[in-house]
Every structure is written in structure tokens, then in C-alpha cells.
Design a protein that fits this description.
By secondary structure, the chain is an alpha/beta fold. The chain folds into two domains: 8-53 and 377-398 and 411-432, Urease, subunit C, domain 1; 56-365, Alpha-Beta Barrel (TIM Barrel). 29% of the residues lie in helices and 22% in strands. The strands form five sheets. The protein has a five-stranded antiparallel beta sheet with strand order 5-16-17-18-19, covered by helices on one side. A hairpin with a 5-residue loop joins strand 1 (8-15) and strand 2. Helix 4 (162-173) crosses helix 6. The chain is globular. It catalyses: (S)-dihydroorotate + H2O = N-carbamoyl-L-aspartate + H(+).
Length: 433
């Protein structure tokens, strides 16, 4: 593909949502025409026969690590990874150093995104000062800052104090924000190394019981109902959690939930290898849980897929299991895993993927300009995917600074070939622009 000097791009013959084959003309930052037989002299032409054109993906749960842990990831490298995976917006979690618990820190992350980002970066503000769970952070100041924070989370830690959680829900209700909860009752997971079950018993590793997640979710949906506020459940991982969220939604409680790609595919059986790449928070669960999560994502009980992209330097993962950090990178493989687990199995259509990975996360996080249909007059935030591609995951080729993927050497379907951020190609023919 040769770039045009006119600022126009013509995507020719792509399958848009609904399965129709269409040409899409981008002029500047906007989609200006969708149809057939479009002619645009001087435009950059992307031949897209057999490919699927999706609205740009939005990740509500990304760890960019900057400021403070640039050895793991930076805003630049993390957003390059996002663009490689088809993302046009990511929400950056607050567990940085210093913690993003003030207007100054969230504005720093926001400005880094504007200056260096290959996608839009929306900072997530901490719920409590220093993620310590004792005192509310400057929620209003972060919302009123240039970063305009709408999502607040102590992710990596649970807001386990019920009074603090209630006050946070009350506070964000005033400006339409949402608290994203890392559901983990800390006393129930002291010394935990993996999912509590048959495998943990056989391996002699400390177990992480499902009830540690489920009890916090049950408490928080009731608090959200009492307050009349919004709560979002991060990285839901158990069949029991699915049932609690399903019950809460049936009562009209304003709760949303996410599932990660790795919890849709991997199980605790992999821990038998003692490979720390499979060590993650929450832990990999059982095949029964995986099945329940897929079904819940398909029927809408789980609203979105979020990566929980958690980069770590080599030395933090290439060590014994007990000492290893928890987390996996996921931005560059998420869409492939979702195709493998949800589309190729018949559980979701591509329209469903667009909803779970673009429309719904943009709506939950209130990411203006993202999660919009591919139609005339809309911002040109777009992702072009080749669904017929099959390839082996090679971490050495990642744009992320970290390589802690559980999919290295595994064959996965689908390949993002182009990503457009407001009409600008950030990924062209599979290569970063």
C-alpha cells in the first residue's frame, strides 16, 4: 500500500457488519462514503477482499506501566502493541509508580498518550489513595482534569472495605462515572498461587477459591443497587460469578462485567507445567468455568472482552513459580483468541465481536468517538482483519516491550492487517506505521 498525498483512503471490498461487501472511503479523520464501486482518484487503496472491517477495538483494561515501570512497558510500546492488535483506544490502569490517584498523574498519562500514542489513551483513576484501600482518592479532581477520567479502579487490589466501596459508588454517581472492581477478598487468597481445586491439591500449591471472587461481586452489586450507581466487574473468571451477575442484571442493577481472552481459552491444567507464564490474577480456572464464561459472553451476561494486558520484564517471569509476577500480555493476540473461542465455535458472530470489543467497552468507559458504526459521517476508527489467516504466535515479533504471553508457539486464527485512528493508518499491511 502506497500512502496518498490527498489524505484519502479507499478500503475496497471489505466485509462490513451484516456480511455485506462494501467499499469504505476515508477523507481526513472521517468515513465519508460506504457503498459499492466507489472511485476516489489519488486515494490510498487498500484491497480488502475476504477481510472483515470492524469498528476500532476498545480495551477497558490495559496496564501501560508508565510512569514508574518503563522496564515493563511504556505508553509508546503499549499503544504500538494495541495498534498491532486492532485497538484504537485503551483505558490505562492506575497501578503505576506513582499511583494514578491525583489529577496530576492522570494528566501525565493522558498527555503521554496524546504525544506518543498509537491509539487513544484514557487513564483510569485509582479509587483509593495509593491503592491502599483506606481513603478515597481525588475522584472529582481526576474527572474534572484534562484527562476527564470516567473509570476508577484499584485493579491489582480489591476495594475490600464495604464503606469505602459504597462511598466511591456514591461519589462517581454524581458525574456518571463507574467503579471497576478487582473482585478478590484478600483474606481468602492469602498465600494463593493458583485456582483452588483438584490441580492445586495435587501440586501442593496454595489455592485461590472461587468464593473469593464471588463474595465480593455479590456484595458490590447489592451496594450498587442500594446507591443507584454503576459498578463494573473486572476479569470475571468463575461460573459462580456469572450466575451472580446474571441475577443482578435480572433485578435491573446497573452492573457490567468483562472477561479476558485467556480465561476464555486456558485452564488450570496448564499449571502442571510450572511455567510461570500461566500465573495470573485471577488464576486460570477449570474447563467448567471456561465453558460458562464463553456462554455468558455469547448471551450478553458478560458485556465485554478486556485484555488485562499485564507486561512484565523477563526476570519477573523467568523464575520459579512462587516468585513469579502475575500477569500476561494480551493486546496483540486478543482478537485471535476471541475468533478461536467464540467465532469459530459458532458462539458469536462478527457483529457480536464488534459489540463486545468495541461498542460496549466504549459505552461503559464513555470513550467519545470510539465504538461507532462503520458509516458515513463517523470517525474513521477502524480495524481490518483477515479471518482466514492461521499462524503461530511468535513473542519475538511483539510490539510490546514484554514477552510474557501464554500463546507462544500456539497456532491461532486471524490477523489484523490495518488499524486506522481517526483516518490515520497506525498499522499498514501488518506493519506499524
Amino acid at each position: 500500500m502506497t500512502m496518498s498525498e490527498t489524505g484519502k483512503t479507499l478500503i475496497r471490498g471489505a466485509k462490513v457488519l451484516g456480511g455485506e461487501v462494501r467499499d469504505v472511503l476515508i477523507d481526513g479523520e472521517t468515513v465519508v462514503e460506504v457503498g459499492t464501486g466507489i472511485e476516489a482518484g489519488g486515494a490510498t487503496v487498500v484491497e480488502a477482499a475476504g477481510r472483515i472491517l470492524l469498528p476500532g477495538l476498545v480495551d477497558l483494561h490495559t496496564h501501560l506501566r508508565e510512569p514508574g515501570r518503563e522496564d515493563s512497558e511504556t505508553v509508546l510500546t503499549g499503544t504500538r502493541a494495541a495498534a498491532s492488535g486492532g485497538y484504537t483506544a485503551v483505558f490505562a490502569m492506575a497501578n503505576t509508580f506513582p499511583v494514578a490517584d491525583t489529577a496530576g498523574v492522570v494528566e501525565q498519562v493522558w498527555r503521554l498518550g496524546r504525544e506518543h500514542g498509537y491509539c487513544d489513551v484514557r487513564p483510569i483513576g485509582a479509587v483509593t489513595v495509593g491503592l491502599e484501600g483506606r481513603k478515597l482518592a481525588e475522584l472529582g479532581a481526576m474527572h474534572d482534569s484534562a484527562a476527564a477520567v470516567t473509570v476508577f479502579s484499584d485493579d491489582g487490589k480489591c476495594v475490600d472495605d464495604a464503606v469505602i466501596m459504597r462511598r466511591a459508588l456514591e461519589y462517581v454517581k454524581a458525574f456518571g462515572g463507574v467503579v471497576a472492581q478487582h473482585a478478590q477478598e484478600p483474606r481468602l487468597t492469602e498465600g494463593a498461587q493458583m485456582n483452588e481445586g483438584v490441580v492445586s491439591a495435587e501440586l501442593g500449591l496454595g489455592g485461590w477459591p472461587a468464593v473469593a471472587e464471588e463474595s465480593i461481586i455479590a456484595r458490590d452489586v447489592l451496594l450498587a443497587e442500594h446507591v443507584g450507581s454503576r459498578v463494573h466487574i473486572c476479569h470475571l473468571s468463575t461460573a459462580g460469578s456469572v450466575e451472580i451477575v446474571r441475577w443482578a442484571k435480572s433485578r435491573g442493577i446497573d452492573v457490567t462485567a468483562e472477561v479476558t481472552p485467556h480465561h476464555l481459552l486456558l485452564t488450570d491444567e496448564l499449571v502442571r507445567t510450572y511455567d510461570p507464564v500461566y500465573k495470573v490474577n485471577p488464576p486460570l480456572r477449570t474447563e467448567r468455568d471456561v465453558t460458562a464464561l464463553r456462554e455468558a459472553l455469547a448471551d450478553g451476561t458478560i458485556d465485554i472482552v478486556a485484555t488485562d494486558h499485564a507486561p512484565h520484564p523477563h526476570e519477573d517471569k523467568d523464575c520459579e513459580w512462587a516468585a513469579a509476577a502475575m500477569g500476561m500480555v494480551g493486546l496483540e493476540t486478543a482478537l485471535s483468541v476471541v475468533q478461536h473461542t467464540m467465532v469459530d465455535t459458532g458462539l458469536l458472530t462478527w457483529e457480536g465481536v464488534a459489540d463486545r470489543m468495541s461498542f460496549a467497552p466504549a459505552r461503559i468507559g464513555r470513550a467519545e468517538g470510539h465504538g461507532r458504526p462503520v458509516s458515513s459521517g463517523e470517525p474513521a476508527n477502524l480495524t481490518l482483519l483477515d479471518p482466514a489467516y492461521r499462524g503461530t504466535v511468535d513473542p519475538a515479533g511483539f510490539a510490546s516491550r514484554s514477552r510474557n504471553t501464554p500463546y507462544g508457539g500456539r497456532e491461532l486464527p486471524g490477523r489484523v492487517t490495518h488499524t486506522f485512528l481517526r483516518g490515520r493508518a497506525t498499522l499498514m499491511d501488518g506493519k506499524l506505521a
